[in-house]
């Protein structure tokens, strides 16, 4: 018989697992990993409201995507276009970034799988006498290691020609040159830290759902058990 067990610690772990998976996925897909040096506006870039030139803009570069300003087809102002610069994996700008993409993709895949499974832990707490919380926590720890490897290798690719075109000639491995780090990189770091927090917190979720209080309510014949 399925017993639906909901505790504060198990629900918090589930929510954190989902948030971490989405945060890492959004960061990976974003083009805002590097913010390039300011590009001056052309004489045609005139703000119709003030009559003055628009401020210089900052193009952004991601692992496989970029955002840059291009002339609009019909308007005199310029607009920003975002999209992948690499049509396939081999066209990613640096071998280090290719490795980063692989490690991040593996880590995010694991996190998404754990996030999916975590939703069902309210009803199923173990499989083959193994705690789902402990298994998921182990997987989150492994995913965190993959994410760390990807984030360590990513700055090594700052010396590629693509990065230099955005960050200037002084850009090199682990040196930003004229670029700055974008929100996607910080989100990926924050998500990695939360991944390990989730891995540790999974043990607390397992303890909460197997406590004496829960066992007492199961023995009383309750199918829905909510403990705050």
How does this structure look, described?
The longest helix has 27 residues, at 183-209. With 228 residues, the protein is an alpha+beta fold. Helix 1 runs antiparallel to helix 2 and helix 3 runs antiparallel to helix 5 (183-209). It has six helices and nine strands. It is elongated. The chain has one domain: Butyryl-CoA Dehydrogenase, subunit A, domain 3. It has helices spanning 8-29, 95-119, 132-153, 161-167, 183-209, 212-219; strands spanning 4-7, 34-35, 60-61, 65-71, 78-84, 126-127, 130-131, 180-181, 224-227. Residues 43-53 and 73-77 have low confidence and may be disordered. It has a five-stranded antiparallel beta sheet. Strands 1-9 form a two-stranded parallel ribbon. Strand 6 and strand 7 (130-131) form a beta hairpin. It is a multi-pass membrane protein. Its main location: membrane. It is found in: Membrane. This is LHPL2 protein. Keywords: Fertilization, Membrane, Transmembrane, Transmembrane helix.
- The rough form would be described as elongated
Mean pLDDT across every amino acid position: 82
By CATH reckoning, the class would read Mainly Alpha
Order of helices and strands: EHEEEEHEEHHEHHE
How are strands sequenced across the largest beta sheet?
A: 5-4-3-2-8
Q: Which fold name is given in CATH as the topology?
A: Butyryl-CoA Dehydrogenase, subunit A, domain 3
Assembly type of the chains comes to single chain
Give the CATH architecture.
Up-down Bundle
* Share in helix: 40-55%
Main β-sheet description: 5 strands, antiparallel
Rg estimate, integer Å: 23 Å
Count of separate DSSP helical elements: 6
Structural class, by secondary structure, is alpha+beta
Number of strands: 9
| Poorly predicted regions | 43-53, 73-77
Alpha carbon gap, first and last residue: 23 Å
The number of domains is 1
Beta-strand percent range = 5-15%
Family: Belongs to the LHFP family.
InterPro entries: LHFPL (IPR019372)
Transmembrane segments: 12-35, 96-120, 132-154, 183-203
Main location: membrane
